[in-house]
Amino acid sequence: MPQAVLLGTENRAKQERLAWLLEDLGLKLVTPSQAALAAPWVEEDGLSHRANATAKAVAWSVAYGGMAIASDGGLVVPALGHGWDSLKTRRFFEGDDLGRARELLSLMAHLEMEGRHAYWVEAVVVADRGRLLHTAEGRSGEGIIALEADDALIKGGFWIGAVWYFPQLGKRYAEMNDIELAQVGDHWSALKGQARNLLGQH
Q1: Closest Cα partner for 86 from 58, 46, 125, 124?
Q2: Are 165 and 101 in contact (CB under 8 A)?
Q3: Do 162 and 103 meet the contact criterion of CB atoms below 8 Å apart?
Q4: For residue 161, is it left (φ>0), alpha (ψ between -120 and 50) or beta?
Q5: pLDDT of the residue at 201
Q6: pLDDT at res. 37
Q7: Cβ atoms of residues 64 and 29 within 8 Å
Q8: Which domains, and CATH codes, for the chain?
Q9: What is the mean pLDDT of each run of 10 residues along the chain (202 residues)?
Q10: What SS3 string covers the chain?
């Protein structure tokens, strides 16, 4: 095992989630900036989140020369059908995060609340110097897409939390703590239970 596991992303919000995923395993974690690494070019054209996460983890692990963890996820909005692809959650709109939030709300403007259900899927992959080691996948519970965004909750490269609302708690995703996230069936909480397997620990 290398001296540290690289968090294979430049997205601060994703770095925090990956670090939280591994926090109980006694590992040293390093970000790309701490390792003085530039992001490798990765063509995110896989047919699944697992495929995209694998491409990212493999590329980062080669650049790092050691073990790297990366993920890929997206929002599933059943009511939009072919008009929405979870694989393009981050890239469906050429603009900033606020623009993305507003564009999604525009796409869903014709839907009443009962048709605004949405959930998140996330794949996490660990690779070591270009070799795939382990994969895991998690799915969240269902929330709904609110009628408007809370702009103040768009931060750290994650905008979905500003529009994704959970009526049972009366909160948006970005407002919830870890306990509340577990209560609504958060995908990261589901993945945390698989963290030891991701690193080949038992």
Answers
A1: 46
A2: no
A3: no
A4: alpha
A5: 66
A6: 95
A7: no
A8: 5-198 (3.90.950.10)
A9: 83 91 92 95 90 97 96 94 88 84 93 92 96 94 95 85 95 93 91 83 55
A10: CCCCEEECCCCHHHHHHHHHHHHHHCCCEECCCCCCCCCCCCCCCCCCHHHHHHHHHHHHHHHHCCEEEEEEEEEECHHHHHHCCHHHCCCCCCCCHHHHHHHHHHHCCCCCHHHCEEEEEEEEEEEECCEEEEEEEEECCCEEECCCCCHHHCECCECHHHCEEECCCCEEHHHCCHHHHHHCCCHHHHHHCCHHHHCCCC
Phi-psi region at 26: left, alpha or beta (left = phi > 0; alpha = psi -120 to 50): left
In degrees rounded to 5, what are phi and psi of residue 100?
Answer: -65, -45
Rounded to whole angstroms, the Cα distance separating 94 from 174 reads 23
Residue in this structure with the two tokens 């995110």, named with its chain if needed: 44
**Residue keyed to tokens 């690494």:** 37
Nearest to 48 by CA among 77, 90, 87, 82: 87
Answer yes or no: are the C-beta atoms of 187 and 140 closer than 8 Å: yes
111 token code pair? 């839907």
Task: Kindly report the pTM of this predicted structure.
Answer: 0.89
The string over 86-118, giving b where at least 16 C-beta atoms fall within 10 Å of a residue's C-beta and e elsewhere, is bbebbebbeeebeebbbebbebbeebeeeebeb
